[in-house]
Amino acid sequence: MKNMLxxxxxxxxxxxxxxIFMSPMTRSRADNPxxxxxxxxxxxxxxxxSAGLIISEGSQxxxxxxxxxxxxGIYSPAQVExxxxxxxxxHQKGGHIFCQLWHVGRxxxxxxHDGKPPVAPSxxxxxxxAFTAEGFKNTVEPRALTVAEIHNTTHDFRRAAQNALAxxxxxxxxxxxxxxxxxxxxxxxANTRTDEYxxxxxxxxxxxxxxxxxxxxxxxxxxxxxxLNPSAHGFFGITIDQDxxxxxxxxxxxLNNYSNLxxxxxxxxxxxxDNVPYAVKEVAKHFRPRYKGKLIINCGFRAESGKQVxxxxxxxxxxxxxxxxxxxxxxxxxxxxxKWNKWDETTFYTAGPKGYTDYPIxxxxxxxxKTED
Length: 373
Ligand SMILES: Cc1cc2nc3c(=O)[nH]c(=O)nc-3n(C[C@H](O)[C@H](O)[C@H](O)COP(=O)(O)O)c2cc1C
Fold this sequence. Notes:
Layout: E1 9-11, E2 14-16, E3 20-22, H1 39-47, E4 54-60, H2 77-92, E5 97-102, E6 119-120, E7 129-132, E8 135-138, E9 143-144, H3 147-166, E10 171-175, H4 181-186, H5 201-204, H6 206-219, E11 224-228, H7 244-255, E12 263-267, H8 283-287, E13 295-298, H9 303-311, E14 317-320, H10 322-326, H11 330-336
Parallel strand pairs: 3-14, 4-5, 5-10, 6-9, 10-11, 11-12, 12-13, 13-14
Antiparallel strand pairs: 1-2, 7-8
Helix pairs in contact: 1-2, 3-6
Bound molecules: flavin mononucleotide.
């Protein structure tokens, strides 16, 4: 039987050649005053263009949305021009690429905001670290967004989505995972609001759905994906409680109403949750029966486990993170059964080509395909 990872798939408006997607990864190479993508960043993504779909690193939707140094933005004309280099290079090689739209909320630091605190659903310090120009610093107590500011942030996402299309992206992924702004609204540990944006499931997810609605209306829902990490616990300032999974079930149930949404991208637990009360241990297994659209699964997959999760009907595609970072030709390696390069953590967020565009690709003699099928 053909390896299911190599089977084409229709996602949103795109016919994709395989189900081996590249998961979004911040690489901090936009080290220029405008935080725009550069020719080096274009080279990195173009090297990985054989992915069924590339999801770009998180890209801040406004100045206020930033939380790490040297991450690219998607709000200014210069940034749109920078991203054109990337999308052009990926498309030239026949690839597809979505832009991950990002607002970090409270996972930031006053250093990024002229000394003012970052924004969040409520004034609760996540007690995490922010990566600033002077290295890691402790997060601070953020400032709660007003309702008017929440609406403005929704508009920032819409404008960022329009910018992404102007920059040549095939669509956008709304980053509503990993303890960033939308996830903060979903979580009781970060959201104690008593207005229409806190409390009930409907209220905690209102900002997210208002944003999804605006973004989808602006660029078409078949160009919009959503990322969720329901089992995050003990990091990103997030803790699971008894309302966490019901909240995510509510989100997924409502996402079913968006029948032409491109996809929902789930993450399996990033750290063990065996002893965490109320946590879902197997995310794809739990949410596959609940979500009717295209489901991408991520976290810790290898060739065999990725193939299996699709064969067992628990996901439609697999997003590979660190494996893609270290193997530009991951699709070819999976197709041929070749060995994978190891990733080097010390260069994840450093400047320049080292550990970025210099991972080796397979030599010609290693490219013999396996005699499957
Ligand atoms: C260097 C690095 C940067 C990351 N940046 C992002 C990001 O910008 N947005 C995001 O949603 N996830 C980000 N992640 C999480 C990955 O998308 C993925 O969920 C994680 O690496 C687990 O998948 P893997 O086991 O296949 O690597 C990042 C991970 C790494 C290693």
